């Protein structure tokens, strides 16, 4: 046998602490056919700085679709099928790098996915630039060993083969045809090269994670050894590995036979029926509709005439709506007939390779008036790769190499729903059959009408009112995940264990919005002291901060007067410009220079916020530059007057020191105390402290300006005017 090794690699990704599925870094590989050995090379590393500590990385594996994980232990939506993912843990302690190998023998061909993430996020809101997070990197490489000339078993033909040694197992494959109801594998004439009784182990099927349904058969001696499989995967190659358990130097001669039991499907529609349906939907010509009416009427006759077949196949049309969004439509109407003699089969095509990143929803509704027996039950099974054809014999929905998902409806419970999260890439089947409590003979002539609604959606129920459905991408592969808000959690944001009440949401909105009203004293002080430009900036900041936080709320108490991104940008711009104009106003520079700096600084701040809205230097840069200007101006004023500036101790004690203290407390709360849980009151405190500090820090008005007052008017309609420059009064 000729083996070929292949190597596949993807670029490393920076890991994140886990709070939702978008934090997990996904790797997508494709395993070729006839692969006998798969080896994953997992490399994890961390930075060398003091902020880097020991960390545990969790890595999940799955075949056919991204792994369904639940690191936070939250609840899944009702009717959702959840099977634990296969995962391992990689620990980065004293070592900067960790290399781990994971081997999989006889892996299933097709898509394989790896998801890696760090432990649960702490929930602290970190300001970009104040702290340096430790980088944790993860890279996955794949090695495969592929057999180029794997022998093929012909169905029904006994074929001799040789197992060279226990160290070199024999690999063969057989193609499973469509409509195969069962398969029987038989091994006979097992002798060693030394003419002794042999012992071999046969492994049928490939390994899939998280669950593997590989069948094992141990044969001893020369007697015939066989294994029967029900519902093998249709239109796929089935890999068989034979291992010798004898002595190391002896080869083993075996004879293998694979035979299939093929199910003859009964057709309930024809190509002419399909044409007539399209014409009726498109409003076809009257002549064409009239000519197709007899063909459409043949469908019930054909369905009833083929009750002797082992299954009744209903035609289903796949209708692509959008990315990871598909609707399945039955050609013969939403209702399908279900009887007790043979199962009714619906094909749900999910084998495009781009359908595994959503949720498959199957809804079954029983028409109660269509069932003549009160105790009859319609049993359904949703399975991948091959349908369940023996619903009357077993109700666990198992096939040869997979486990399906059961559903049942009756007159007492007429509706059932199934949600398959991240369905694997394959052909999916829905099998339905009528069962009677006293045996199938009781309802041999009965028939039930079942309405089936099936669709593929990116996020089930669009993540509900407290979640946002996000479309994620890894190279060319697209998948969806829910980002939850207001304390809600779970795969579809249906877990209300830590959810905020409506009262708490209203309180958070009121605190974050009404706390901006503390800018009113600062605006009043600025207007009273003739700082009209500064007052305009504070009014702008108060307005947009109020409505930005009203739009930014995660719950139901939300009001957006314009686009969210616009409100956020205006809020950030107003906050930084308010600090800029306040410090420049404290510098007491000449008016023309002050207003030039106002405009120039505002333009530069607007540019920097467009480049990086959350960078710490967008706030610290203007603040530091303005402080340099203020200190320079104060030193100049002090040197000119030959005493400290500001000269009044009352100004320092009652205004400057309280304002500076409030500003430092506000910065500390903003940078180090905010978390996702306490954000609504810590950020409200930030609003109050900043607004109060501005009111304290604004300098007094110029000495030649007097307080605002109503103009004095004489009774003879002459008006007294004041000349600020000459301080003279003139009667006009």
From TrEMBL:
Return the similarity comment.
Belongs to the TMEM8 family.
Give the species.
Origma solitaria
One of this protein's Pfam families, by short name? Answer: DUF3522
Main localization category:
membrane
The protein's name: TMM8A factor
Q: How does it sit in the membrane?
A: Multi-pass membrane protein
InterPro entries documented for this protein: EGF (IPR000742), NGX6/PGAP6/MYMK (IPR021910)
- PROSITE patterns attached to this UniProt entry: EGF_1, EGF_2, EGF_3
């Amino acid at each position: 046998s000729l083996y070929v090794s292949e190597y596949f690699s993807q670029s490393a990704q920076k890991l994140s602490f886990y709070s939702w599925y978008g934090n997990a870094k996904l790797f997508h590989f494709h395993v070729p056919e006839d692969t006998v050995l798969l080896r994953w090379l997992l490399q994890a590393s961390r930075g060398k700085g003091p902020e880097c500590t020991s960390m545990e990385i969790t890595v999940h594996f799955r075949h056919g679709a991204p792994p369904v994980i639940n690191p936070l232990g939250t609840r899944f939506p009702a009717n959702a099928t959840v099977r634990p993912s296969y995962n391992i843990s990689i620990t980065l302690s004293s070592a900067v790098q960790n290399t781990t190998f994971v081997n999989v023998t006889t892996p299933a061909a097709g898509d394989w996915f790896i998801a890696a993430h760090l432990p649960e996020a702490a929930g602290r809101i970190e300001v970009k630039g104040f702290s340096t997070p430790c980088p944790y990197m993860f890279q996955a490489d794949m090695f495969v060993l592929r057999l180029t000339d794997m022998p093929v078993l012909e169905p029904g033909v006994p074929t001799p083969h040789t197992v060279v040694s226990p160290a070199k197992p024999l690999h063969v494959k057989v193609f499973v045809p469509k409509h195969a109801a069962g398969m029987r594998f038989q091994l006979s004439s097992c002798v060693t090269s030394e003419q002794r009784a042999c012992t071999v182990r046969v492994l049928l099927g490939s390994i899939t994670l998280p669950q593997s349904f590989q069948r094992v058969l141990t044969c001893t001696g020369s007697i015939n050894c066989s294994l029967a499989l029900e519902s093998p995967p249709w239109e796929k190659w089935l890999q068989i590995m034979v291992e010798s358990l004898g002595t190391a130097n002896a080869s083993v001669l075996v004879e293998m036979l694979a035979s299939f039991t093929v199910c003859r499907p009964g057709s309930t529609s024809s190509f002419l029926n399909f044409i007539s349906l399209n014409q009726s939907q498109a409003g076809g010509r009257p002549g064409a509709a009239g000519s197709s009416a007899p063909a459409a009427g043949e469908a019930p006759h054909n369905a009833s005439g083929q009750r002797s077949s082992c299954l009744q196949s209903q035609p289903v049309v796949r209708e692509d709506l959008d990315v990871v969004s598909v609707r399945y439509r039955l050609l013969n109407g939403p209702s399908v007939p279900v009887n007790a003699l043979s199962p009714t089969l619906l094909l749900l095509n999910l084998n495009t390779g781009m359908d595994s990143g959503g949720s498959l929803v199957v809804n079954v509704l029983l028409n109660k008036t269509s069932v003549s027996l009160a105790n009859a039950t319609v049993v359904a099974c949703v399975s991948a790769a091959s349908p369940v054809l023996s619903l009357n014999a077993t109700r666990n929905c198992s096939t040869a190499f997979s486990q399906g998902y059961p559903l049942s409806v009756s007159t007492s419970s007429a509706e059932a729903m199934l949600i398959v999260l991240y369905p694997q890439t394959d052909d999916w089947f829905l099998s339905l059959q009528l069962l009677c409590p006293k045996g199938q003979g009781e309802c041999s002539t009965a028939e039930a009408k079942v309405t089936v609604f099936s669709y593929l959606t990116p996020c089930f129920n669009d993540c509900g009112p407290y979640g946002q459905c996000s479309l994620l991408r890894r190279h060319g592969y697209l998948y969806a995940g829910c980002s939850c808000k207001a304390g809600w959690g779970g795969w579809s944001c249906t877990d209300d264990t830590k959810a905020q009440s409506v009262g708490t949401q209203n309180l958070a909105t009121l605190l974050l919005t009404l706390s901006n009203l503390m800018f009113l004293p600062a605006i009043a002080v600025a207007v009273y002291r003739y700082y009209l430009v500064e007052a305009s900036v504070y009014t702008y900041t108060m307005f947009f901060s109020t409505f930005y936080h009203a739009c930014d709320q995660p719950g139901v108490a939300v009001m957006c007067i314009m686009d969210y991104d616009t409100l956020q940008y205006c809020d950030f711009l107003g906050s930084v410009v308010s600090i800029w104009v306040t410090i420049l106003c404290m510098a007491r520079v000449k008016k023309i220079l002050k207003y030039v700096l106002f405009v120039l600084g505002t333009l530069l701040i607007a540019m920097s916020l467009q480049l990086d809205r959350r960078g710490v230097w967008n706030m610290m840069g203007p603040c530091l530059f303005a402080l340099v200007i203020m200190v320079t101006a104060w030193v100049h004023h002090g040197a000119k007057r030959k005493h400290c500036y500001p000269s009044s101790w009352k100004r320092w004690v009652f205004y400057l020191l309280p304002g500076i203290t409030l500003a430092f407390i506000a910065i500390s709360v903003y940078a180090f105390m905010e978390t996702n849980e306490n954000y609504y009151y810590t950020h409200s405190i930030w609003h109050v402290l900043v607004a109060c500090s501005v009111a304290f820090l604004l300098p007094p008005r110029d000495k030649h300006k007097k307080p605002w007052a109503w103009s004095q008017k004489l009774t003879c309609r002459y008006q007294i005017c004041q000349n600020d420059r000459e301080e003279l009064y003139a009667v006009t």
